[in-house]
Amino acid sequence: MLKLLALILALVPQLIPAPAEMQVRGGSFKVTPASSARIEYKLDPECGIPAEGYSLEVTRTRVRALASTEAGLFYARQTLNQLEENGQIPCVSIKDYPRFSWRGFHLDPCRHFLSVEETKKFIDIMASYKMNVMHWHLTDDQGWRIQIKKYPRLTEVGGTRTEFDGSVHQGYYTQEEIRDVVAYAAERHVTVLPEIEMPGHAIAAIRAYPGLSCTKETVSTFYTWGSPDIVMCPGSEYMFEFLEDVIREVIRLFPSEYVHIGGDECKKAKWEKCPACQARIRALGLKADEKGTAEEKLQSYAVRRMEGILAKYGRKLIGWDEILEGGLSPNATVMSWRGEAGGIAAALEGHDVIMTPSKEGMYLDHVQGDPKIEPVSIGNYTTLEKAYNYDPVPQELIDNGKDGHVIGLQCNNWSEYIYSDSHREYMLFPRAFAVAETAWTPKDRKDWESFRVRVDKACQDLDDRGVNYHIPLPEQPGGSCDHLVFTDKAVVEFTTTRPVAAMVYTVDGSEPTAKSERYQKPLEFTRTTTLKIASLTSYGKLSPVRTITVSKEEPWPALPEEAVQKGIRASRTDGRFVTAAQITGPAREVKVERLRDLTTLEPFDRNMPDTLQFYAAQAQACFKVKETGVYRFSSDCDQVWIDGKLLIDNGDQVKRFSREDAEAALQAGVHSVKVVYIYNVIGGWNSIRNKTDVQMTKSGTDKWRRIDIL
Ligand code: ACM
Ligand code: ZN
User: Which of 120, 691, 141 is nearest to 415 (CA)?
Assistant: First the structure.
């Protein structure tokens, strides 16, 4: 039965997004240099096909595409490109049109810059899957990426940051480059939506022009993620003059009907203390009520003024759903990212909305498999299936007749943890294809089982283009771990987040290939082994290989009575260190009650002032194990030593999540633990935010708990 289904699916053209209506007939049209005369693209504004839609008739002798718009013909061409295989186009009859007019994808060059070439690559791919808006997030705390001629320091100062380790990250787009990208996108029927963030997420601008902030303080650099308290000052007229000047240059570059003004995650702490902001609040008579605090109303006032500025230049405002706080501007369109609630509230008030809820599957920076083995990410969990199954029209809006205000959906690709172009691609694909299908295909034509088969063809297309993408890794149910231990026998089970053709493995240290042993059932080990395992796709490509050590060990003996120590002995060394090997200098004793107190020897300051005192700290203690057995340890500290042996070494990895879990066999009784913690910032992650110290669980169970210090 499954084989039959697979055969039927193989015969159906592998289109993404699936067309609204399609009939497949027998036979095919042969593409030759001479046959191009028999391929007709006809534009007829009166043909009655919806904007962006098209019809396509492929017979053995002719190909006819018809549309009422150029965009429709462009999409007919994309469909034909996808249909063609080995010079043949199957005979089909297609009537196709999009479900949503807003089919967006978002790029964030602020946290990690990407070149014009790489940006065009995304536009090219997305357009071929019928996406039509690129939301370009051009300004943020960590970087200002658009040249503004009136304010050259925005890119001279705000376009460069020096990271914790002294490396420099920089880049911006000249106005000429922006015009080039916008034109390139327009040729592919993609509108570029610029985002200029206000009043929060603006440290890059404030670094360049300190007068924009409430305290007008100089901020020398900013190299961590999160939302700082330092934001623009809506108490001052300077902020609005600046933003109007910027907008005046922006709108000359972008023909987009809309401009995105951000508006998200603006901390209000500085406004509460700022004389100018408080004077503005008094002058406007803003008062806290059930709709929000006085400061939230001040934000609403600032957004309304932005709406006025944009209207003056004939443009409309889009903002993140925080622009609802304190009251929505009259004509704003809302991008709902903190779930759907903001979008629903705005649509009920009659505003257009674009759904891009983070935890519901539209944030393509979220991890797409087991975070223990996937590359470090911002977290959460969005598999391909979850991204595919998201539907942007909530029942509540249908029930209230407001579903028409959902003009579309968008996937966002924030780049805090995207350290390379190839990793950006890995995070976007193939999940962006899932979003493309939801954006275009009628809901009742969507089908996950069919999509997950069709997606393999789209992935092969990425291979042809030299673009990286995610293939599900073999994962251990209940939590993956690369350093396994057993005392007499280990049984190791694997699964994948979605079906793959097979998992293949070796146990002799060699790299697996498509021809290696196929995983059929849980693997048993009675000898120390290096297991290498990968997923194999239907088209013969392997996922990255996991290397797992499965070690036979005698349980480590418990400490003798005289070596048992109560409490924690800890010391601290001031300095900027990246790895444990670099720690040098005088150490002084510090008092801590719990291992996790190692992270609180200095206060957390989200604003990263130059005065921060970085340090390394070590702690030694004893802990008790009730039963002899194998235990798994996890820590986002830098190192964990058990009984004098280095078990976990996070090296110079980004310590966002523990990804070097390891097992040890321990005898019942007391054992020693040493922890090395470094307060530093690696890859933009500020380790003082880690609070988990050392966790342990009996291997094979999922009952993690803090290590019990004596
Ligand atoms: C957002 O993710 N802060 C819009
Ligand atoms: Zn202020």
Answer: 141
Peptide bond between residue 430 and the one before it cis (omega within 30 degrees of 0): yes
pLDDT tens readout for residues 70-122:
999 999 999 999 999 999 999 999 999 999 999 999 999 999 999 999 999 99
Read off the pLDDT of residues 8-39 as tens digits, 9 standing for 90 and up: 444 567 899 999 999 999 999 999 989 988 99
DSSP assignment of 632-653 equals: EEEESSSEEEETTEEEEE-TTS
- Chain-centre distance for alpha carbon 474: 21
Sign of the torsion angle spanned by Cα atoms 327, 331, 336, 337: negative
Atom of ligand 1 nearest to the CA of 414: 2
Ligand 1 in reach of 426 Cβ (< 6 A): no
Please give the share of the chain, as a percent, with pLDDT higher than 90.
Answer: 94
pTM above 0.85, yes or no: yes
How far apart are the C-alpha atoms of 96 and 22, rounded to whole Å? 8
- Rounded CA-CA distance 483/486 in Å is 10
Measure 264 CA to ligand 1 centroid, in angstroms.
Answer: 6
Taking CA atoms, 187 is separated from 70, 127, 184, in Å, by 10, 10, 5
CA distance 229 to 266: 8
- Selecting from 1.10.10.10, 3.30.379.10, 3.30.559.10, 3.40.50.170, what CATH number does the domain 21-96 have? 3.30.379.10
Determine whether the shortest distance from the Cβ of 320 to ligand 1 is under 6 A. Answer: yes
Which residues are known catalytic residues?
140, 201, 265
Assign 3-class secondary structure to 119-151: HHHHHHHHHHCCCCEEEEECEECCEECECCCCC
Q: Where in the chain is the domain with CATH 2.60.120?
A: 561-706
Task: For residue 28, give every residue at least 6 positions away whose Cβ sits within 8 Å of its Cβ, in sequence order, or none.
Answer: 58, 60, 88, 89, 90, 91
Kindly state if the Cβ of 41 falls inside 6 Å of ligand 1.
Answer: no
Q: How far is the CA of 598 from the CAs of 146, 602, 697, in angstroms? A: 41, 9, 22
Candidates 135, 161, 560, 156; CA nearest to 362 is 135
Rounded Cα gap, residues 543 and 523, in angstroms = 19
Instruction: Give me the CATH code for the 483-552 domain, please.
Output: 2.60.40
Neighbours of 596 (CB within 10 A): 18
In angstroms, the CA 259 to CA 41 distance is: 34
Q: Does residue 524 contact residue 562 with C-beta atoms inside 8 Å? A: no
Over residues 273-300, the pLDDT tens digits come to 999 999 999 999 999 998 899 999 999 9
Work out which ligand 1 atom sits closest to the CA atom of 363.
2
